[in-house]
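EI: anyone free to look at a 336-residue chain?
SC: sure, send it
EI:
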Amino acid sequence: MNTKKMSSFLTQNAIYIVLIVLVIGIAISDPRFLSIDILRDILLQNSTRAIIALGMAFILITGGTDLSAGRVVGLTAVLSASMLQIMDYPRRFFPDLPNLPLWAPIVIGILAGLVVGLLNGWIVSRLSVPPFIATLGTMVIVYGANSIYFDMKPNESQPIAGLRPDFTKLGTGFIGSGGSYSIPYIVIIAIIVALIVWVVFNKTRLGKNMYAIGGNIQAATVSGINVRRNLLKIYAFAGALYGLGGVLEAARTGGATNNYGNMYELDAIAACVVGGVSTAGGIGTVPGVLVGVLIFGVINYGLTFIGVSPYWQLIIKGLIIVAAVAFDIRKYLAKK
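SC: here you go
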């Protein structure tokens, strides 16, 4: 293999090489890291983050960004959890609320995320506010609204707990007899979501228009693409995924507060960028995003597993993010 082919191979497979090197490095320090139990735990802990990152990928590929994602996760976690407490829990959010069908609060949470996404899309597409500023504003609005809801009597800002077993089973249940070879429901849900997003990205008109808008918005407009309508759909789709992520996070952890989802948007952006989603727009794949999430999952879990200080973990994550963006910019400039 000549130098040019080797360089091309390394460029195209850089994120996979990084992931392999991380796993090997941690495994050398502690071989127990290669066990099936550890892999299962990493997948379980990062399934909701994968769903949120896939939603973020929609926005980044259009050349935008979404700072409201984490607060939408918190809003939908609180909404769903507040309606799915067991009947005899002493501090029910709604003391007189009857047992609702499981699907109803879940759908309400997803719809709440979709509504915030529509609001973001409307501000960006109709008012021509830059995505960074638009979503910064909605981030603050959503957090304020969620905090008001969370502070209502009789709850008064107490953590929401005592969730119904049929709900928490979504986040902690599994297929199989248990142990290493069981498959958590939440992982299956994340895989299904990833497949749906892959279809949208690669097999639908919305996906093709999304890449066109991110590649060159002026050219997309001239070619007849309704940019405003497509941006509205894209932000709504992303918001719905944040909503689903928030609902599943409440099910996984067995509770919720108004601070759930804090900084999740930055983790999602970082995972997308490391996974090959271009900050300039127009480039990104579902497998790349999933590997990006997995890289940070391995960093968080693996470095803690071998006793590395959380502060050093932050430094390592920051260096990886900067390196990924610098690499992306160099590729972008090389093509110009």
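EI: The chain is about 70% helix and 0% strand.
SC: 👍
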